[in-house]
Amino acid sequence: MYHMKNIVSFQEEIELPKCMYRLKNPIEVDENDEAELNIRDQVTKFLKKMSNNGLVELENRQERLLTKLDDLYERIKTISSLCKNSQQDIKTSKPKMEFVKPSEVVMFLHPDKLPWFMNIFLKAINGINVSWHTHSSVPSIKIAKVDSFFKKFQALYSSQSGGKVNFRLIFKCESAAPELKISSLSSPIIGSVNILRYLCLVFPNIVNYDYDDHQIDGMLDICHQLEMDSVKNKEVSITQMFTDKTGFIYKNMFSVVDLALFNVIKQMQNGTKLVPKKWYNDCEKIIL
Amino acid sequence: MVASDDTKPTVEGDAASSKKAAKKAAKAAEKQQKKAEHKASSVQNEVQDEKDISEGKYGIMKLIQSTGENRDRVYTDVKDLGVALEGKMVWVRVRLQTSRAKGKQCFCVLRQNCHTVQLLMSVNEERAISKNMVKFTGNITKESIIDVQAIVARTAAPIDSCSVRDVELLGVQVWVVSQARPQLPLQIEDAARPENNDPEGLKIRVNQDTRLDNRVLDLRTPANQAIFRIEAGVCRLFRDILTKKGFVEIHTPKIISAASEGGANVFTVSYFKSNAYLAQSPQLYKQMAIAADFDKVFTVGAVFRAEDSNTHRHLTEFVGLDLEMSFIHHYHEVVDTIGQTFTDMFRGLQEQYASEIATVGEQFKVEPFKFLDPPLRLEFPQAVEMLKEAGVTIGDEEDLSTPVEKLLGRLVKSQYDTDFYILDKYPLAVRPFYTMPDPNNPRYSNSYDMFMRGEEILSGAQRIHDPELLTERAKEHGIDISKIAAYIESFRLGCPPHAGGGIGLERVVMLYLGLDNIRKTSMFPRDPKRVTP
């Protein structure tokens, strides 16, 4: 399989042992015999005798490689230390980071799931041209419901003079979960909770969302799960979320969790019965 | 089989050969006897034929010369056959698509337009169906027109090979109305075979030229029947939608004295002692109608282009659907009207022609056409940005090439999930001289293109209605003013601001159905290499 490169060439024979284990003869002790069969000594002797350039080159090469390896090790060490530092930097600066606002945003929604969570953002942001379309997959009977939503919030969902961001809502029957696309080449952001996360990142200071707080993310994950759950599971989970609570869910302060849950409740037929009335009214005042 | 009566004479003195001769003679005698028996039986059959129980129930019908016979006979359409008619006796006038006779039975597939049904003709004393009648049915040539009286019967299992699956017809009478010749230039089964890549399916196809050479036969395939019904639908919806919007249908001349668009691509026709041209576009006449206070006009008619383009999407004669409309303040009033007309048309096709679209889909596998309501409108700089993101750089004042248009179509589909969109604000440099410049950016214009599946279907603009500006723009384009003097003059009598555009019917149908060649949507296509049939 492999051919060995001949580095040391010699013609002399090395005397090899003829048996695997040599037993000392307890009667006759012959010291010379052992010395003659010491292979290492024999090879060393040969090598010393020869003036082989190949071997010297090999040694030099080995030295160079070892130096390079040392150099690489040092570099990796530096990079890893830099990474540790930058991670710490991100942690501290994350909430202050400003994301580039896209000029064209497309959101796909099922006609049965209206974009209640969008109202709070549209109220706060200026310069957005909002338009909505129905996809060919939507039957005519479902258009009326969508139409009445936009008539109700006509002021929010309209084009603004000098608007630099085009926000298009496309109602489509093919996918159940909302999808947000900011480019024709990028993958969509799927699910209204994830869309909320993105919007909070791009438009900070509208809805309270602390990125370092894992508890908020945990609750948002539950809200995301609720979107896909059956009505029965939704009822159980929502009731659990409001155990011993009448006000806002997290730290008694309106946050992205309340917004996500409010959106889930609005999509349900009898959702309002599952939550405290005070919480619902307070959310409605802030969001809508 | 013909038995030879000749027997070789035996040779005297040869015992072996005489034995053979005797055997041969015996065989010959046996054959003679059999022949006589066969003759006798055939005579008997003839006698039986005379007493055919099916007599008067089958045969070749007398040439229909409108003598008034059978006028009270009620015919049922194949598409209406169903379990509701089970046990009922019906008459159908159909084409015999295929027949397979075996023993005492004959299975036929009967076709009426896009719809097919199975006919079973079996020897049956109760219904007075003789073996001869079954044999006659089996011998009717394919594609012949026949009248069949039959009983509608529910089938045990659905018939997959026919469009009517739940019932079949049990034949009672069969009359040949018009016989097709036995050798057909192409087989309908071959022409109708699905164009998918099924490794187990038959690979026999009919090529485009054979189809067009024998268009009458080719048009009988279910897909073609559906395509031209959809095409009629596009035309009807275009008329209905625009009429509802207050448009007036006008008819513009097709023989014109001067070339309407440049002059390079016109057909010249001899016109008495001089020459005339075939109209390339009804645009000038539409504009004149606007100047004559018709406000909103449309026209449907033949358009001729002498372009030597042998592509999948060019014809030298096609049906143009053109419209022109005056507006109050902004040409977007017109863009929105045209865009909405398309969307309503697509919605109408989706709702009213679902079965025809499905029929076409059975032969040509394509993705269903997707659109948005209201339609998506992008501006040219947005398209340039999208292309740039995808790695294609276009100059700000450069037109889009066909491959770039296709790429843009894909990008738009990926982001907005629509096959139809409007691209607004084209660079002024790439549009004709009569296009109104954009007041906010002189490099751009108030013009637009509309696309289906990444291919341009409509090119339109706000036309300059001011004669001075029109003259100035024409000079900038290096156009000889004297040649367009009449056009400029028509605006000196006062003309409202207006915009419009035109589409090719065949191209719209081709792209709506996702077909690969415009010749599939032109009944008798005309291209640089074809002027027949």
TrEMBL record, chain A:
GO cellular component term of the entry, any: cytoplasm
Primary localization: cytoplasm
Location in or out of the cell: Cytoplasm
Cross-referenced InterPro entries: AIMP2, AIMP2_thioredoxin
Residue ranges of every copy of the AIMP2 thioredoxin-like domain listed in the record: 103-189
GO biological process, alphabetically ordered: translation
Alphabetized UniProt keyword annotations: Cytoplasm, Protein biosynthesis
Protein name: (African queen) hypothetical protein
Annotated source species: Danaus chrysippus
Automatic annotation (TrEMBL), chain B:
Catalytic activity: tRNA(Asp) + L-aspartate + ATP = L-aspartyl-tRNA(Asp) + AMP + diphosphate
Region (Disordered): 1-50
Annotated GO biological process: aspartyl-tRNA aminoacylation
Localization per Swiss-Prot or TrEMBL: Cytoplasm
GO molecular function, one term: ATP binding
Any Gene Ontology CC annotation: aminoacyl-tRNA synthetase multienzyme complex
Source domain of life: Eukaryota
Bias (Basic and acidic residues) ranges: 1-11, 27-40
Primary subcellular site in the record, as a coarse category: cytoplasm
UniProt keyword annotation of Nucleotide-binding present: yes
Record keywords: Aminoacyl-tRNA synthetase, ATP-binding, Cytoplasm, Ligase, Nucleotide-binding, Protein biosynthesis
Enzyme Commission number(s) of this protein: 6.1.1.12
InterPro entries, per database record: Aa-tRNA-synt_II, aa-tRNA-synth_II, aa-tRNA-synth_II/BPL/LPL, Asp-tRNA_synthase_2, Asp/Asn-tRNA-synth_IIb, NA-bd_OB-fold
Database matches in Gene3D superfamilies: Bira Bifunctional Protein, Domain 2, Nucleic acid-binding proteins
Residue ranges constituting the Aminoacyl-transfer RNA synthetases class-II family profile domain according to the UniProt record: 228-533
SUPFAM superfamilies to which the protein is assigned, alphabetical: Class II aaRS and biotin synthetases (SSF55681), Nucleic acid-binding proteins (SSF50249)
NCBIfam families: aspS_nondisc, PRK05159.1
Family indicated by similarity: Belongs to the class-II aminoacyl-tRNA synthetase family. Type 2 subfamily.
Protein name: Aspartate--tRNA ligase, cytoplasmic
